[in-house]
# Entry
Amino acid sequence: MSVIFCNDRGWLLDSCSLINQGYERCFCVNKGYFRCKFNKRFYEISKPYIEDKIKADVLNTETQDKIDMKTRKKRKRKHRDLNQGEIDAEAYHEKVRLLVLEGSEPLIKAGHGCGFLTKVLRINLTKPTPVHECQLSSLCDMAKQLLSAENCDAAPVQSVQGHADLDSHLDLFSHLTENADDFARVVTLMGEKYFLPPRSRFLLSDITCLEPLVKSGEKFDLIVIDPPWENKSVKRSNRYSFLPPTRLKQLPVPVVSAAGCVVVTWVTNRPRHLRFVREELFPHWGVKLLAEWLWVKVTRTGEFVFPLDSPHKKPYEVLLLGRINANSDDTFRPEECEIPDQRLLIGIPSALHSHKPSLSDVLKPYIRHNAKCLEMFARSLQPDWTSWGNEVLKFQHHSYFTTESLESACDAPVNTNHQVRTEAGDTSAQL
# Structure
């Protein structure tokens, strides 16, 4: 379980532990059964991101000023008034600043108490783990040129077999593909080896080819959306394509939602994106906004990954939560709790870009038992979830995992992760 501790302020999460739950028992045709784990080095965030950069910039600036003092005039920094977006961003930060400070303190303290967070770090001199270069979005673009309209309308679900020759014929771009087994499988798809968690489904496509998902007839009780928001750093780095906010209205969220479906959208800290979701996107889908949560990113020592008051980047991201058809009589079921507002998710982030933590354990109390769950713009798979995106298999690549042998299938161990601790009086956080 990924929830280490929870109270009426939020949850302390171990994201890597939750990933590993799906791979306690894996099967490969050539190897038999074994156990694999997501490489923990991707979660070894030992110090704030900005610390070394600030020191380097200060030293470089001071040195350069001394060198250039005799040869040129010191450049004067022009004063610039804040634009409206920056003013709105500062106003939002002031609104949530106290929540982040006060709410994170007991959760971080609990992390130190149970040993998940540490005050003393061992020096790690090993080289960084190489990252696989993902070509999935390019393959999606190529596939669109080859697929006929008839194929894009097809909706049957196809299953992986685990045999390279059989799986080589799977059409991943116009069909839902699943691992229907109760154990993870190693499969070879498009010439690359991937680990698929148990009972997982995926569709590899972009927003122009969502018909297979719609035609499947599935109605989901939970939809988590992580849109590729437009921002300056994405444009500069060219790490992935982004969508204009208005294109998000084309997502068939109402069509694939069950009554009372919980819709969760990750949003950047840009005020115009937050306003768009609140005032345009959710109303367009018929979603009533119920709560606003913050994902607060910390290092292994419990420090914020960026200074809380940094004018450039903040150590938190926003999640907006609502229910579709929230005013209808049949929206809520007896086993569901009302979604609380102003909660924090505290955790060590992945070093991999856009690798968000899973929300499955946190959201269990607010959806029905055996709920059907969908992630949109996904870059990884989860057990018992359907995932869609043009890089949906990105973090399933074998290079992100380490493996351990098992003597037999029967020796697969029972999961023994951190026991969830809760503070008295917090009924909404009981899992």
